[in-house]
Design a protein that fits this description.
Elements (H helix, E strand, L loop, with lengths): L8 E4 L10 H8 L5 H9 L3 E3 L2 E2 L11 E4 L14 E5 L3 E6 L16 H9 L5 E2 L8 E7 L2 H12 L3 E10 L7 E9 L6 E4 L5 E10 L5 E8 L6 H8 L27 E9 L6 E5 L16
Parallel strand pairs: 8-14
Antiparallel strand pairs: 1-4, 2-3, 2-4, 5-6, 6-8, 7-8, 9-13, 9-14, 10-11, 10-12, 12-13, 14-15
């Protein structure tokens, strides 16, 4: 069952040669990065359950059962921007996500995520994102309303049968457009960034210019990726020497405060088009958000 729009995580208790005396001891050992005090608070608040019954720190370890636990953060900065559901049928939600809203619970974000908002809004615990969209990126994202629908829609991305268009604002360039970028990307340093490496390309993006700012220093680019690696568009433009405006990772990592909502990454998932794998209908959607040439950084910061 959901609690405040958050679905529980499940944990199977295996048979162990040296079984711990309690479930509390087991989870503290299995997840040492969380800390015993956090687990103690979760048990005290009824956030660790088995068969819908709350467990205590004294509940004995019993192999072969599955427990459920809910994540809870003591403090979470509210994201003051609204999402918009722009399409819904029995299988699918198409949502326009604002900047700064994480898609699904992870790390510092549980309540302040789009998935939690949608589960709270609809009461549907089975809703799940079909694909990825960075916290910093605004625009369109698909959510399946059932597990079967999720498999069907994910196949569109796996087989590259979905046409994605992004907009980005970055410095004007001397490159000749349109152009295609094909690079091999692997995990970088820090681990949450991506880096260009040697080898067979595993990413591809077609890039063109849509407009220039009045002073000619900035351009709005159209990006059409055929692959979907983490941070692909951000790395591709940075590789061309034109990092996206307000990018806090590329060309260098510059961490922002959690409550700093003043400089959104100028990247927008503008449109999606595909043939619905369930109904066979041609589907096309466009974000209501727009990028413009206001409030841009000083170019020499790059």
């Amino acid at each position: 069952m959901m609690r405040a729009g958050v679905s529980p995580s499940k944990l199977y208790l295996p048979k162990l040669d040296n079984a711990p005396p309690t479930i509390f001891v087991y989870v503290c050992t299995k997840f040492p990065h969380i800390g015993a005090d956090v687990w103690r608070a979760r048990f005290a608040d009824g956030l660790v359950v088995c068969d819908d019954k709350p467990l205590t720190i004294d509940s004995p370890y019993q192999h072969g059962v599955t427990i459920q636990y809910y994540r809870q953060l003591p403090v979470e900065v509210a994201v003051p921007f609204a999402h918009r559901v722009i399409f819904e049928n029995e299988q699918l939600l198409v949502v326009d996500k604002p900047h700064f809203l994480t898609v699904a619970p992870a790390g510092r974000y549980v309540q302040q995520t789009l998935l939690t908002r949608l589960k709270t809004q609809t009461g549907n615990a089975d809703i799940s994102p079909v694909h990825r969209l960075d916290r910093e990126t605004a625009g369109l994202i698909l959510f399946a309303k059932t597990m079967a629908a999720r498999t069907a829609y994910q196949s569109l991305f796996a087989s590259r049968q979905i046409h994605k268009v992004y907009h980005a604002i970055a410095p004007a360039s001397t490159h000749r457009f349109p152009l295609s970028v094909a690079l091999r990307l692997e995990r970088g340093e820090p681990f949450y960034t991506m880096a260009v490496t040697d080898g067979v390309p595993n990413t591809h993006t077609d890039i063109d210019v849509l407009a220039y700012s009045d002073d000619g220093k900035w351009a709005k680019y159209q990006l059409c990726p055929s692959t979907g690696k983490l941070h692909q568009l951000r790395v591709h433009l940075n590789h061309l020497g034109i990092p996206i405006a307000h990018d806090s990772f590329y060309p260098q990592v510059r961490h922002k405060a959690q409550d700093d909502f003043g400089s959104p990454l100028q990247l927008l998932a503008k449109s999606l088009a595909f043939t619905d794998p369930i109904t066979g209908e041609a589907m096309a959607f466009e974000s209501g958000f727009e990028l413009d040439f206001t409030n841009l950084p000083v170019l020499d910061q790059f």
